[in-house]
Amino acid sequence: MPLDYQSLTFAYRSSSDQRNATPVRHPVVIVGAGPVGLTCAIDLARQGIRVIVLDDDDTLSTGSRAICFAKRTLEIWDRLDCGDRMVDKGVSWNVGKVHFRDDLVYRFDLLDEPGHRRPAFINLQQYYVEGFLFETAAAEQDIELRWKNRVVALEQDATHATLTVETPDGPYRLACDYVIACDGSRSPMRDMLGLKSKGHSFRDRFLIADVKMTPEASARFAAERWFWFDPPFHRGQSVLLHQQPDDVWRIDFQLGWDADPVVEREPGRVAARVRALLAQDDGADAEFTFEWMSVYTFSCQRMERFRHGRVLFAGDAAHGVSPFGARGANSGVQDADNLAWKMRLVLQGRAPDRLLDSYDEERVAAADENILNSTRSTDFITPKSEISKTFRDAVLELARDHPFARKLVNSGRLSVPSTLASSSLNTLDRDAFEGALVPGATCVDAPVTVDGQPAWLLDQLREDFTLLCFGNSSLEDLRDAIVPLRFVVVLPAGAVSSTAATTLVHDREGRVATRYDAAPGTAYLIRPDQHVCARWRSWDADDVRAALARATCND
Predict the structure, then answer these.
(1) Helices (H), 317-443
(2) Which H or E element spans position 41?
(3) 455 and 326, same structural domain?
(4) Is position 422 within any domain?
(5) What are phi and psi of 54, to 5 degrees?
(6) What is the pLDDT of residues 224-261, one digit of tens each?
(7) Does the residue 338 lie in any domain?
(8) Where are the strands (E) in 182-237, listed by range?
(9) What is the value of pTM for the model shown?
(10) Using one digit for the tens of pLDDT, what is the confidence trace for 2-19?
């Protein structure tokens, strides 16, 4: 019998720290047990770093909240061995449809070629995501989850941070090398440091309704992203529809700035809106109930910096965007992915503390990219002048017949991994390459064969830095690398290896060589978070050593 994650309550338990007069020093304390905090905790624990996770609550998230999780996020969770559960439960989709007034304008496919392990997106209620991550974290011996532990004060100096934590048994103090603040958009940790997020709010209101339908009613709609501009059932506004597991559907209705949030949440009023939508597909008589409703406004904003001494901010605590494009939770998981390996190397003494400054550098740039895309989406969806609305409507009319205009339509630029092209950790190309896998880009998956069995490339690029070599290579001179270095050699299907590689893979469909624009002698140096940091057409051990030193701030 599956767990009911919405009713699950976690027991408060006292910890040994509460019985010590002098604060015990821990490597890492994570504040917040949401998707970002739990992902970061699992990643650190898998790398041998002990983590304390503090949460002021004793339940998982209420309502569906974040529901769209991107291919890159799934690949991160695959690396942490919890991706299968997410995909098996979630609703996978690649196709979106854009409607204007009474007509379908066009459809798009976010993953229009074969040879990928994961879909472009899954839809999955946040409480399932948190539940699966919690169960993964609870099985890790190096993670201690402490519920009903609310941080009320923070002090730090050059060597460590000290937290004051309030519990049902009273307060205690906890010391650590680093704090990772994943405590949400209203972040008390941010307030404790006297910090603010800056940006702007949008003068519009939206209604989220999570509607549970009967299986028969649910079958009327495909597992796709449906977006309507000015539809007949909601004139002058926009509507977004997504399928979730358990025959639950997420519907976002634009309401306008003058809408009364209290009135718009009335069940009868929401039901009328839902029935009007369903009537477009002869579903006006469909039975449904409400799972969750909320009226919201939103902002695009971020902290000026994500690192403040011994405290690093991630997820909604560091940055926030509108929901169009599913860039919020996905970006937060990528924050965790970026930070964990750097913190591990610093704590192990394999990299200097300034490596953590690159977290701020890279993820601030990624946040700016997300904010830019989110702002543009919102401006297109909710034009603020007659001129803007005229332009938008003209673009939508043209998009019916002209593919060039479809590039201008913006119903939410959907989440993609940030390419950290300007990162100080990259080694610049000296050779010519085709394609998008520049230093700073995330690696692309492809089908391979390992030990005669079908496998996936990204599963071979885990935990440590990896030298991905195409063709037989001499690797002996790199056994003493400055940080642990794995060797993965890629050969054409059926080729025989003469290399003592950590992992030998065969490119069973030729997609690895194509996607990496690789020829014999090509090599990619790949970070533990599966970002490219250097590549060469031909290379030697000194090239790799220099790139490793740069990527770990040991230069």
Answers:
(1) 328-347, 357-381, 386-399, 403-406
(2) helix 35-46
(3) no
(4) no
(5) -110, 135
(6) 999 999 999 999 999 999 999 999 999 999 999 999 99
(7) yes
(8) 197-201, 206-213, 225-229
(9) 0.96
(10) 578 888 999 999 999 998
